[in-house]
Amino acid sequence: MPPRRPTYPLAHSFRRKPRRVPLVLRFTKGSIHSIVFFPVLLHSLFTILIVYLDTRVLSSLGLPSTIIPSLSIVVGLMLVFRNSTSYDRFWTGRNCLTTIVLYAIKHNLRAEFNIPPASLEGAPAFDAHSTPVSRRPSYVDRPTPSSEDAGENGLVDGDGLHQPKNVYKSLLPDGLRGYEDEGLSLPLQLSVLVESYIRRGVDRGWFHAPLASQMTVQINSLVDAYGRMETIRSTPIPIAHLIHQKQVLALFTCVLPFAIVDDYVWWSVPIVAIVAFTLYGIEGIGQQLEDPFGYDKNDIKMDGIIEDTRREVLTLLGEWQKAQGDAEDEGAHLGGMFN
């Protein structure tokens, strides 16, 4: 097989590589089989009980098969609404991450707070190389990389991408304290600092007012994108919809054996298992996409996106520094010629 090498640019956020196992045979990474296993198992056991009672104990437990189409329409509509809503959240989050790509955004969306809080009395001054201060666990039920994946210089995510440890800390102002424990996120705190810098630049004549206005508009766009991502993270699907959807799925899959037992007998068991696998799998996909900012295989590759952006910025800065150095060397050469 060809070597699995990333292709630049966008090597980490978008990588096409040969699949070692066809997707139809994959049951672990990226799949939702662990979510649907128990519902499928329970409905299969229930179907076995119905078939046994229908064939060995009672004369007939069958229901008219005409009830299935009417129920399937309702179930299909509910699953379509759930999946379309969840994917819209995923797509919106990805677009917003294109607008604002910051280490602070990634850590804030995962509730990984890495700088000392201002309310902590006697806290040492902020050190860019210090160990992160942990004040509460990572965001909700998204697992963080295990300690086994930790290296000497950082973490390795599920795609094998090496993440520098606290690499964004060196970009923060010295002595910066966080206010996450008081309800203020670090991205908003940094936006206030940038806005104050723009105002100070206008007062000191570093740039004119129209340019300052354009930069302020950019700051507003960043804050708006961050607000959209925070809305996705903090606004789950209403619990009433989730309860009703689970109950409708369970009701439909429990009624299905009664409607097909007379026609298929013991074949009803695999048929119900396949139907349950399909329906609960679609529901499980919507559950995976509902919050796309974690570490799961189906989440947005924030680590890769931010790593690609970091490399692009470093490359641009390197070329700019090289051009500045060449200009200075040329100026020194010309000065020597005139002297």
From TrEMBL:
It comes from Paraconiothyrium brasiliense. Residues 126-162 are annotated as: Disordered. The chain crosses the membrane at residues 35-53, 59-81, 264-282. It is a multi-pass membrane protein. Pfam families: Bestrophin_2. Keywords: Ion transport, Membrane, Transmembrane, Transmembrane helix, Transport. This is Bestrophin. It is found in: Membrane.
